[in-house]
């Protein structure tokens, strides 16, 4: 398990899990948000974003934080050893987004690009609320199209996530 993708709704805990896996396995973590968003929360053009993703996953060892289905999931999934899907209740993801936007505003986060501060965003809340009906089916369809043979681990609760982390052998040097 040297090329891992962690996907899930905004606020599901995918960045936290990706960072913990990266630390435990001594793997670089690729935050797709950092590669996609430009200062001021401006979108990247698709071609340059795909180029940045391709360069970021060119190595043999990485943890990818996010899917960006429709834009880059085909690139990451084609090289992945495992796909970890975090499937949390909507209310929990909503709560975490609200908490983050209210209390983590001034906290530096590795998964946020420079010039893109944490802020409350109704669009993000709406996307998170609709994730199960709008994004998850697209991610699943792309998984079947581009990586049907990639093993999938689905995690729903904190104890599932901790159990998965505990089952991953520590990187030995």
Helix amount, in percent? Answer: 40-55%
Note the overall shape: globular
Continuous helix count: 8
The number of E-state strands comes to 5
Q: Strand order, biggest sheet? A: 2-3-1-4-5
Q: Characterize the biggest β-sheet.
A: 5 strands, parallel
The overall average pLDDT, rounded, is 89
Percent range for β-strand residues? 5-15%
Class from helix and strand fractions? alpha/beta
Distance between the termini: 16 Å
- List segments where confidence is low: pLDDT < 50 over at least 5 consecutive residues: none
Rounded to the nearest angstrom, the radius of gyration is 15 Å
Order of helices and strands: EHEHHEHEHHHEH
In short:
47% of the residues lie in helices and 13% in strands. The protein is an alpha/beta fold and 173 residues long.
3D architecture notes:
This protein has 173 residues and is of the alpha/beta class. The protein is 47% helix and 13% strand. The chain contains eight helices and five strands. Strands 2-3-1-4-5 form a five-stranded parallel sheet. The two termini are 16 Å apart. The mean pLDDT is 89.
Keywords:
8 helices; 13% strand; five-stranded parallel beta sheet; 173 residues; globular; alpha/beta; 5 strands
